[in-house]
Amino acid sequence: MNTYFEERERAPASEREQSLLSRLLPALEAARERAPAIARQLQNVDVGSVRDRQGLSRIPVVRKSELLQAQLAMRQGSGAAKLPPVSRIFGGFSAIGWGEAVRVFASPGPIYEPESKRPDYWGFARALYAAGFRPGELVHNCFSYHFTPAGSMMETAAHALGCTVFPGGVGQTEQQVQAIADLAPAGYTGTPSFLKLILQKADDMGMRLPSITRALFSGEAFPPSLCQWFADRGIAGYQAYGSADLGMIAYETSAREGLVVNEDIILEIVRPGSDQPLPAGEVGEVVVTTLNPDYPLLRFGTGDLSAIMAGPSPCGRTNVRIKGWMGRADQTTKVRGMFVHPGQIEQVIKRHADISKARLEVSGKIGSDVMVLKVESATPPPELAVKVAESVRELTKLRADVVVVGPGSLPNDGKVIDDIRNYD
């Protein structure tokens, strides 16, 4: 039996990179034609020059908050008079309309996302296969089927894999136990906490559910302790990382070493609050460019922190790996009544070529806040701290002490703003 969902999962990394980049330019041109918001995102970019990652980095990052604001503005009529109704609903980011989209979902905000007719639209079939799911099996799907796309994500993936799906949805643990006992599904999809509740309810009811031997989890943390809890019950659980905007981003394999990036996306790690890619190993914001012709998001900032791991996975898959979810990139905080954003710290860095990295620490108690900006510099010129403090004052309207430290002194945790105030 095949080890991989597709043979390209073990293709040479250089071959994959060349393939992705060769598809990028046609994807940009098509997106610009059909999605007005993408055309605006590209309006100051020479699209013809976007043939490598350096060229890609010249496209401004669009973050989830901007996607929400674009949708809200168009739904309220701002700048949308000449656009068809479907463009207004999706903020101009969708390349498909009613009829082409088979479903539309709502995430908190609300942000509306389309789903087209393409098989495995969300891209989770690869993750199911890596978790041990195979054609001809029954999958018990306990993701929600209402409003958000999680239920459809797993169902369409299972169908693409050749599986049958029981739409369990959420809640009703006693009925979930009975359905599993009657139908004997081979695998489960949903959150790990809900499967744990189902198994504990089965214990309370004096029933055994031995048919489930594999599970694909998403939507919440899956720590090693919980992985072992399931393993002790004969269930091999794996995790997948995705979003309602992008679909599946990365997935766990039998190697249990990080998450392997999906095949049809270009993933970058950027400094929070900026558009600038970080070197491999540095913690930063996950930014994804999809090659999805129906919903073509370019350099979409997820708001999640992660880092790229070195080398290919021991399982034989050669795509880039990330460490998994490591926190949130939006570290905006309020100091003395003023909001301070990671983007403002990025502007400070750009003003001073001698700075390679910066971290703002906010300490003290509410009402007596203290800001200290620590900056890394290999060869700091005289008065660097003074000049940086002036930039902070100008950009944030707040005073900060500036401490110059050597390269590598600041933690590699993706934090640009670290709020360590005492709220007691």
TrEMBL record:
<protein>
    <submittedName>
        <fullName>AMP-dependent synthetase</fullName>
    </submittedName>
</protein>
<dbReference type="InterPro" id="IPR000873">
    <property type="entry name" value="AMP-dep_synth/lig_dom"/>
</dbReference>
<dbReference type="InterPro" id="IPR042099">
    <property type="entry name" value="ANL_N_sf"/>
</dbReference>
<feature type="domain" description="AMP-dependent synthetase/ligase">
    <location>
        <begin position="135"/>
        <end position="289"/>
    </location>
</feature>
<dbReference type="Pfam" id="PF00501">
    <property type="entry name" value="AMP-binding"/>
</dbReference>
<dbReference type="InterPro" id="IPR045851">
    <property type="entry name" value="AMP-bd_C_sf"/>
</dbReference>
